[in-house]
Amino acid sequence: MERHRRAVVALAIIGLGLTAMWSQRRVSFGPGLLTVVGLVLLAGQLQWTQKTLFWPALLLLAGVVVLAGLRPSRSRSQPRTESLALLGGAKTVDRSEHFTHADVAAVLGGSTLDLRHAHIDNQATVDAFALFGGVDVLVPEDWRVQVGGLPILGGYEDKTSDDGALPDNAPVLKVNATAVLGGVKVAHEPS
Asked: For the chain, what is the domain count?
């Protein structure tokens, strides 16, 4: 009975990772790591780790995922900012003249992405992933911010002041937040 409960927990972890990737519409590090951890836990419960081909197959699968993530695409032709905090903290400051995209993830830690000195031509995106941690995205006051995403026992929050004073042609930052037992916050100043 205990093995069945552990298998259900492993399936739930896999489901959280896959759901986070689906919400971001791509494979990224945080949700990918969550899915791999769930697969390893499930394999242990189903005693697949006793088979001699399990670990080589897992390494092959991890290599394919890494290579798929390195594949050039239209969005990768522009500069990207990537930040990961794993069991700790990270602060990344982006001063790009033509900011287009950033990935920021916090797993059992906290990560801050400071975009207050970056410039957007028209529109940009940030994919934020928080698992048992927090992600803060700091933006200048003249950007229009749109926050959405997938909270699973967590949440996301837009603390920017949008009093309607922004011009119609203000640059737009879209934040895709995935928060699993954690939080994503967008603000003008650190708290």
From this structure: 2
